[in-house]
């Protein structure tokens, strides 16, 4: 919901971080490091080490933003980098709630996880294919000056809100089932928003 408003301030902040020694890193290496750290956060959550998991999750999010800024600042943007970023983000998005549920181990938690991951699956189709259609129509990221490789259609729940929810998952593991249910519901509302937009604008 607020991702577009945050992109310029985020780029400004992260841009200052890549003016030093970090410029020597390859953006894809940062992407891979972010993924390893994100999976480590899931592993820590599985072991019930929630505060270390939270720290690793936040580091994953910083690195996930840093790779794109580094690529743009150093002229190393590539389709492969953008592809790796999206795929590995989704690996982490699945791994963290899975780790939390493995730690809890209750039937209710597993059912809530199924609902959450099902909503993610539907959401991925809703935004990725819509983004592809917008790029095909030359109405995508480049046309609007966005700081992403492909446009990400807006909705109620986007990247910033996902960070908030995952942080709450790790801070309040006892409330995991209702939090999973709430996030899944908001994700499906977001899917509905995109479908309504598509019906009105795609002919």
Verbal overview:
With 203 residues, the chain is an all-alpha fold. It has one domain: Four Helix Bundle (Hemerythrin (Met), subunit A). The chain is built from seven helices and no strands. The chain is flat, with a radius of gyration of 17 Å. The model has no long low-confidence stretch (mean pLDDT 87).
Task: Give the SSE map.
Blueprint: H1 3-17, H2 27-46, H3 50-74, H4 79-104, H5 107-136, H6 159-171, H7 176-201
Helix pairs in contact: 1-3, 2-3, 2-4, 3-4, 3-6, 4-5, 5-7, 6-7
Strand percentage: under 5%
H/E series: HHHHHHH
Query: What oligomeric arrangement do these chains adopt?
Result: single chain
CATH architecture: Up-down Bundle
Q: Which structural class is indicated by helix and strand composition?
A: mainly alpha
Assigned CATH superfamily: CDP-alcohol phosphotransferase transmembrane (TM) domain
Total of domains = 1
> Unreliable stretches, pLDDT < 50, 5 or more residues?
none
Spatial extent as radius of gyration:
17 Å
According to CATH, what is the class? Answer: Mainly Alpha
Q: How would you describe the shape?
A: flat
The helicity comes to over 70%
Largest sheet: none
Query: What is the mean pLDDT?
Result: 87
State the end-to-end distance: 25 Å
Number of helices: 7
The CATH topology assignment is: Four Helix Bundle (Hemerythrin (Met), subunit A)
Number of DSSP strands?
0
